């Protein structure tokens, strides 16, 4: 299986700080690179993380607040300047297409035809392997999920009992039966791996749908619960909310990010303490350049 991991490029929210850049998240997935929400400074953050324009195959923008998209001009121009030859698909809310065009053509440069635009609209949009769902924010915002198709895990003891080995195993997987022995007799269902990406939103059903059973959930945690009223007013989550989503959805590894500039690194223990009130699983408090593997299959 190809490498699947998250490289965090930025973890602040509306205002970058001395320790946290604007948003930016790069997911390696089966030889593809998915760049989520390239905020201001993403091009430079990629250099520090050892990533290049040639690593990008998708650019996914959740919405058009500046901290989630002001890095688009630099990223687009770098893709053109470095002469990336493979297709790069840009996914963003259709209602923000005017902003996308302004960002893509923010300065004079030799454009590239390798970037194709895929605006999404409606409650749910499918762009395999991506699913986008509309969230609850003052401007139209989408969350994303990557889902590997379900498969089957072969059971060596069952294969041995039926005398199936070598090339016959491949034939069994391909055809579904060998010498009267079925695939179901020698294997069990294996859920495909999944990663969900949820930024600016209030709690709503699509958040839980995106997170459902996810191996990796990257989710905003803008505020602590002491600012719960402010979070709801501005369409954000608290650390407790993020943990609640992870617990109810059965998430295996939770990554908290998008912290308000009002909180410094010294407040990190408070975020962990709060999320533990609602979620007992594995938690990563993201910092810039944190690398988080997608958990191995169950």
Automatic annotation (TrEMBL):
Name of the molecule in the record: Ribonuclease Z
Organism the protein comes from: Nonomuraea dietziae
EC number, UniProt record: 3.1.26.11
Residues engaged in binding Zn(2+) 1: 63, 65, 137, 200
Keywords, alphabetical: Endonuclease, Hydrolase, Metal-binding, Nuclease, tRNA processing, Zinc
An MF annotation (GO) of this entry: zinc ion binding
Residues that bind Zn(2+) 2: 67-68, 200, 258
Class of the enzyme per the UniProt entry, highest EC level: hydrolase
Catalytically driven reaction(s): Endonucleolytic cleavage of RNA, removing extra 3' nucleotides from tRNA precursor, generating 3' termini of tRNAs. A 3'-hydroxy group is left at the tRNA terminus and a 5'-phosphoryl group is left at the trailer molecule
Domain Metallo-beta-lactamase: 20-113, 174-259
Functional description taken from the UniProt entry: Zinc phosphodiesterase, which displays some tRNA 3'-processing endonuclease activity. Probably involved in tRNA maturation, by removing a 3'-trailer from precursor tRNA.
A Pfam entry, by short name: Lactamase_B_2
Cofactor: Zn(2+)
Designated gene of the protein: rnz
Assembly: Homodimer.
